[in-house]
Amino acid sequence: MTVQELHTTGLLFACVCDQETEEVMRLVPVQNYDLKYEGIVGGIKEAIKYLKSNRSPRILIIDLSQSDLPINDIASLSEVCEPGVEVIAIGTRNDVGIFRELVKLGIRDYLVKPLTTTHIIRSIENIVLRNKVTQTTSSFSKFGKIVSFIGTHGGAGVTTLAVNCAWLMSEKHSRRISLIDPDLQLGTISQFLDLEISASLQEILEAPERIDDSLIDRFMTQYSPHLMVMCGQTSLEESQTINPEVFDPIIQSMLGNFHYTIFDLPRSFSNGINLHILGNSNIIVLVTDLSIVGLKDSHRYLEIFKRHRTTDQQVFIIVNKQGEYHAGEIEMEDFEKALNHKIDLVIPFNSHQPLQALTKGIPFVSQETSSALTDSLIQLTDKIMGRETTPKTSIKKLFNLFSFKK
């Protein structure tokens, strides 16, 4: 199954609290706007549950009438909506203050019940016509993020971390994830997931004039409902002359269709691809160990990141396989002092778990749910997703602003 077969770009989905409103929704001629209608009776919590296991629609109508904490519920909804979703909220309170607060949160429109088909048509037209003119969508579900994993030296465990973080984000948090291996000669993501790649990323990169969402879709392999993979393999003897800018349309497509796109980058900077992808990354995960080589190369990488850093870009330094060598590892405090940068997370060495999972072609976190290694990967995933620093206090301040209950 492909991305296109799963994507519901032409769907208007409504989750409303009463049968009367649902019947009005069914009378709206959505086909006039290249849409089809699906709806259920239920509140915003039912909408969140639906979106955790289904692709997001183009337009989502949610009923806040029975919501005790609407701002909190909307924040939860934004976490499961895919980038580019347009949201219309409906409720029972006719208050301009409510409308303004919802707009700040990215809601495109707020309609007061009881609804008429005229109200709904006008709101749909505003969305469809505006998008055609401006080619933009609302800020409710923001564009996705690019996360690049890269290691200081061979054997650092970059692919292991990238694959398992991708699985956790897709399976445990219901995020849409794309996992990309741009190393066409020595990339190993397909082995880690036991995937037989039917088409090569090389073919996309060699025809930049043909790159669009449809072509990219054809070259992605579905690993699970929320996880898609793009990779390939070429001969070790085949020379590569790829323009790094060819990745731009790929990145743009990913930003508009996935919550997170994870790149498993090789260590070579000779062809400019790494620098280009790193420059477009929201988050960089640098994987090292506590060796003298790891320290030296971590310093070199950080210098590169500084020179090519973009606004608001985050860099996480991860010490992997701590304890693999009983002697010779630099003390953590000395490592941080020499590097002049704090270590964000330490992942303990496990002599058998990752290798056994690789042999089976499965992410080890999918089976080993209670181990120090799995706990560390969960922490890393939380860091990438910003779950540790979610500003819940600002949401709480809005809880008492309004209530949609009668």
Automatic annotation (TrEMBL):
Which GO BP terms sit in this record?
negative regulation of cell division
Q: Pull one GO CC term from this UniProt entry.
A: cytoplasmic side of plasma membrane
Domain AAA: where? 145-307
Q: Name the keywords, alphabetized.
A: ATP-binding, Nucleotide-binding
For molecular function, the Gene Ontology terms on record are: ATP binding; ATP hydrolysis activity
Per UniProt, what is one Pfam family of this protein?
AAA_31
Cross-referenced InterPro entries? AAA_dom, CheY-like_superfamily, P-loop_NTPase, ParA/MinD_ATPase
Q: What is this protein called?
A: CobQ/CobB/MinD/ParA nucleotide binding domain protein
Q: Which organism is it from?
A: Caedimonas varicaedens
